[in-house]
Amino acid sequence: MMKSSVSNCPVPSEQQPLNEYEELKSSWLFRDCTLNLREYITKIAWIWGISWLVAFPVAAASFAPHKQSAQFIISSIAGSSVGVVLVVARLYLGWSYIRDRLMSPIIFYEESGWYDGQNWMKPQEVLTRDRLIVSYSIKPIITRLKMTFAGLAVLFVAGTIVWHLV
Protein backbone atom coordinates (compact mmCIF):
# COMPACT_ATOMS: atom_id res chain seq x y z
CA MET A 1 0.00 0.00 0.00
CA MET A 2 2.49 2.69 1.13
CA LYS A 3 5.31 1.03 -0.74
CA SER A 4 4.12 2.26 -4.15
CA SER A 5 3.82 5.90 -3.06
CA VAL A 6 7.18 5.89 -1.34
CA SER A 7 8.87 4.04 -4.19
CA ASN A 8 7.60 6.73 -6.61
CA CYS A 9 9.05 9.43 -4.37
CA PRO A 10 11.55 11.60 -6.29
CA VAL A 11 13.16 12.87 -3.06
CA PRO A 12 16.67 11.41 -2.56
CA SER A 13 16.71 8.83 0.23
CA GLU A 14 18.83 10.91 2.62
CA GLN A 15 16.43 13.87 2.26
CA GLN A 16 13.21 11.96 2.87
CA PRO A 17 11.72 13.09 6.20
CA LEU A 18 11.19 9.54 7.50
CA ASN A 19 14.84 8.68 6.83
CA GLU A 20 15.96 11.97 8.40
CA TYR A 21 13.87 11.07 11.45
CA GLU A 22 15.39 7.58 11.71
CA GLU A 23 18.90 9.01 11.36
CA LEU A 24 18.29 11.68 14.00
CA LYS A 25 16.68 9.16 16.36
CA SER A 26 19.76 6.95 16.20
CA SER A 27 22.42 9.67 16.42
CA TRP A 28 24.43 9.74 19.66
CA LEU A 29 23.16 13.04 21.06
CA PHE A 30 19.56 13.03 19.85
CA ARG A 31 18.77 9.47 20.95
CA ASP A 32 19.19 10.61 24.57
CA CYS A 33 15.83 12.39 24.26
CA THR A 34 14.12 9.05 23.64
CA LEU A 35 15.36 7.48 26.88
CA ASN A 36 13.14 7.00 29.92
CA LEU A 37 12.95 9.98 32.27
CA ARG A 38 15.57 8.74 34.73
CA GLU A 39 18.14 8.02 32.00
CA TYR A 40 17.38 11.36 30.32
CA ILE A 41 17.95 13.27 33.57
CA THR A 42 21.18 11.31 34.10
CA LYS A 43 22.42 12.37 30.64
CA ILE A 44 21.52 16.00 31.35
CA ALA A 45 23.38 15.75 34.67
CA TRP A 46 26.46 14.42 32.85
CA ILE A 47 26.32 17.36 30.44
CA TRP A 48 26.03 19.70 33.42
CA GLY A 49 29.02 18.01 35.08
CA ILE A 50 31.18 18.33 31.99
CA SER A 51 30.16 21.99 31.66
CA TRP A 52 31.03 22.45 35.33
CA LEU A 53 34.66 21.51 34.53
CA VAL A 54 34.81 24.68 32.42
CA ALA A 55 32.66 26.88 34.67
CA PHE A 56 34.44 25.98 37.93
CA PRO A 57 37.80 27.63 37.10
CA VAL A 58 36.05 30.69 35.69
CA ALA A 59 33.96 31.05 38.85
CA ALA A 60 37.07 30.49 41.00
CA ALA A 61 38.90 33.23 39.12
CA SER A 62 35.94 35.59 39.51
CA PHE A 63 35.08 34.88 43.16
CA ALA A 64 37.55 33.66 45.74
CA PRO A 65 36.02 30.35 46.93
CA HIS A 66 37.15 30.82 50.53
CA LYS A 67 36.01 34.48 50.80
CA GLN A 68 32.93 34.64 48.58
CA SER A 69 31.74 31.05 48.73
CA ALA A 70 28.04 31.75 48.02
CA GLN A 71 28.81 33.80 44.89
CA PHE A 72 31.37 31.21 43.81
CA ILE A 73 28.88 28.33 44.15
CA ILE A 74 26.02 30.18 42.46
CA SER A 75 28.17 31.40 39.58
CA SER A 76 29.72 27.97 38.98
CA ILE A 77 26.25 26.35 38.95
CA ALA A 78 24.87 29.01 36.61
CA GLY A 79 27.92 28.85 34.36
CA SER A 80 27.69 25.09 34.02
CA SER A 81 23.97 25.37 33.29
CA VAL A 82 24.81 27.41 30.19
CA GLY A 83 26.29 24.27 28.63
CA VAL A 84 23.05 22.41 29.34
CA VAL A 85 21.00 25.24 27.81
CA LEU A 86 23.10 25.13 24.63
CA VAL A 87 22.78 21.35 24.29
CA VAL A 88 19.02 21.40 24.98
CA ALA A 89 18.61 24.23 22.45
CA ARG A 90 20.45 22.14 19.84
CA LEU A 91 18.26 19.14 20.62
CA TYR A 92 15.11 21.25 20.40
CA LEU A 93 16.11 22.75 17.04
CA GLY A 94 16.98 19.35 15.58
CA TRP A 95 13.75 17.69 16.67
CA SER A 96 11.68 20.73 15.60
CA TYR A 97 13.23 20.64 12.13
CA ILE A 98 12.32 16.96 11.71
CA ARG A 99 8.83 17.61 13.11
CA ASP A 100 8.27 20.37 10.57
CA ARG A 101 9.53 18.19 7.68
CA LEU A 102 7.26 15.34 8.70
CA MET A 103 4.20 17.58 9.21
CA SER A 104 4.59 19.46 5.93
CA PRO A 105 2.49 18.24 3.00
CA ILE A 106 5.13 19.57 0.60
CA ILE A 107 8.79 18.57 0.85
CA PHE A 108 11.56 20.74 -0.54
CA TYR A 109 14.57 18.74 -1.70
CA GLU A 110 17.70 19.18 -3.78
CA GLU A 111 18.32 16.81 -6.65
CA SER A 112 22.06 17.28 -7.02
CA GLY A 113 23.01 20.60 -5.43
CA TRP A 114 21.82 23.86 -3.95
CA TYR A 115 20.89 25.28 -7.34
CA ASP A 116 18.23 22.76 -8.38
CA GLY A 117 15.72 22.53 -5.56
CA GLN A 118 12.34 20.93 -6.15
CA ASN A 119 9.11 20.43 -4.24
CA TRP A 120 7.29 17.12 -3.80
CA MET A 121 3.70 16.82 -2.66
CA LYS A 122 3.34 13.92 -0.24
CA PRO A 123 0.56 11.46 -1.01
CA GLN A 124 -2.12 11.37 1.69
CA GLU A 125 -0.99 7.99 3.07
CA VAL A 126 2.60 9.22 3.50
CA LEU A 127 1.39 12.45 5.09
CA THR A 128 -0.82 10.50 7.50
CA ARG A 129 2.04 8.15 8.44
CA ASP A 130 4.41 11.08 9.00
CA ARG A 131 1.90 12.96 11.13
CA LEU A 132 1.31 9.87 13.26
CA ILE A 133 5.06 9.66 13.87
CA VAL A 134 5.04 13.31 14.95
CA SER A 135 2.06 12.80 17.26
CA TYR A 136 3.32 9.68 19.00
CA SER A 137 7.10 9.95 18.83
CA ILE A 138 8.27 13.53 18.33
CA LYS A 139 5.73 15.62 20.28
CA PRO A 140 6.60 13.87 23.58
CA ILE A 141 10.29 14.58 22.95
CA ILE A 142 9.63 18.24 22.22
CA THR A 143 7.42 18.47 25.31
CA ARG A 144 10.25 16.96 27.39
CA LEU A 145 12.71 19.50 25.98
CA LYS A 146 10.32 22.37 26.72
CA MET A 147 9.96 21.10 30.28
CA THR A 148 13.75 20.97 30.55
CA PHE A 149 13.91 24.60 29.42
CA ALA A 150 11.23 25.51 31.97
CA GLY A 151 13.15 23.74 34.74
CA LEU A 152 16.34 25.54 33.80
CA ALA A 153 14.48 28.87 33.75
CA VAL A 154 13.14 28.19 37.25
CA LEU A 155 16.66 27.38 38.45
CA PHE A 156 18.03 30.58 36.91
CA VAL A 157 15.30 32.67 38.56
CA ALA A 158 15.91 30.93 41.90
CA GLY A 159 19.65 31.49 41.52
CA THR A 160 19.09 35.17 40.77
CA ILE A 161 16.91 35.56 43.86
CA VAL A 162 19.46 33.80 46.05
CA TRP A 163 22.26 35.91 44.53
CA HIS A 164 20.45 39.11 45.52
CA LEU A 165 19.74 37.81 49.02
CA VAL A 166 23.38 36.89 49.67
Automatic annotation (TrEMBL):
Tell me which UniProt keywords the record has, alphabetically: Membrane, Transmembrane, Transmembrane helix
Q: Does the keyword Hydrolase apply?
A: no
Q: Where are the transmembrane segments?
A: 44-64, 70-93, 147-165
Question: What is the name listed in the Swiss-Prot or TrEMBL entry for this protein?
Answer: DUF1230 domain-containing protein
The source organism is: Brasilonema octagenarum UFV-OR1
